Description:
Chain A is α+β, with helices and mostly antiparallel strands and about 290 residues long. Chain A is about 30% helix and about 25% strand. Chain B has one domain (about 1-160): Arp2/3 complex 21 kDa subunit ARPC3. Helices cover about 75% and strands about 0% of the residues of chain B. Chain B is built from seven helices and no strands.
Amino acid sequence: MVGSQSNSNPARIPALGFRALALVVLSILLMWLDNREHHLDAVRRAVGVAVYPVQIVVDTPARLWSWLRENSASKNQLQLENSRLRTESLITRGRMQELEALKAENDRLRAMLDAREQVRGEVRVAGIMAVDANPYRHNIVLDVGSREGVYDGQAIVDASGVVGQVIETGLTTSQAILISDPDHALPVVVNRNGLRTVAFGTGEYNRLSLPFLANNADIETGDLLVTSGLGGAFPSGYPVAVVDKVTRLPQEPFAEVTATPAAALDQVREVMLIWTRKQDDGAGDE
Amino acid sequence: MSNARALRQLPVLITLLIAFMLMMTPMPAAAAPFRPDWLALVLVFWAMTVPRSYSVGIAWLFGIVLDVAQGTLLGQHALALCVIVYITVKFHLLMRVFPLSQLTATIFALLALYQFLLFWINGVAGVTAPAIDYWGPVVAGTIVWPFLSIVLSGLRYRVQTGG
């Protein structure tokens, strides 16, 4: 490339066609490798390090805004919030005592039944970066990565229910897929009667669909769906969604059932990552 | 010479960086499908203006970084950007003399091709997305092009003089 004489004969760019062709072939090769197996995770991670500062810059205005709002809150407001949190904490702690007793009882009963000990994982709070990711998927970017021990397929929940799971771990950030993504499927069980099924994302933040329920299945509006733990990625018993519509069409083999996710998927700012103790790698159920 | 030349290239790199950031800036869920393809627009502008310095190579590089940032298939945006920038460089003399209306129509066609390539690759890879995710950016990009080209033209003379 002879840049300094560009205006002398601008019509001819040397070897343009060849370069373009070479790059297109290289792209196709990369995509093929990337789509097959995750051969290129190292490349992604390396480029991801370069992307990280840009993500930080993009995230800064939102962070600054919430910081300003926190700092400009009046004393009165803070006192109100404080007393509200105090009450909430008291109630939660009260319930916790009950829970401890129940847990002990449960452990005893399980020991009697010789059942396997139930896995309760460690948790860690992570922030969602104000950075938009993949336009074709319901993705979020978390501000923790493999440095913090995050792994692919890890479950993410918030205070009210399941949010999604990690699909790609960088060094300092990671990408997660929400349960509302059309390509996400989650094994669930109806809390009321133990009916097992699978909840699919629909592409809308406030809707999941349950396509594999027969017309005579015992399911009704208001049923709570919780994770069944069958996929291996999620621990069992976390609330997922509440059934909001059941349409039974006599001529169709399956009922049309939709549910509203328990977590406000488009509003969460902070989530919890769950480490289940013995996680066999790559057991994701995406 | 190389120092002065590097200084002249600064505006280009800064605009590309800003375009890259705009691709990641959070938008409300309802407006997100109408995010213009900022990076594609800015790359096309510079490929049309200084095709010797900015052509398929830089487009491909930025495409790869965009793929990593968005978590798309590695090479997807790189390929699509590479193709539209190749076409731009091939016809840059023609595009330079187009009146703005005609140029905007050309940009529309380029953006449509860009999204079609992304759509096609998604199809092969088995990623499904609603149609609005594809035509939304094309419409939005065509609308912002006239304004964007006015802003970037202001920087053009600085980049080109003595180039």
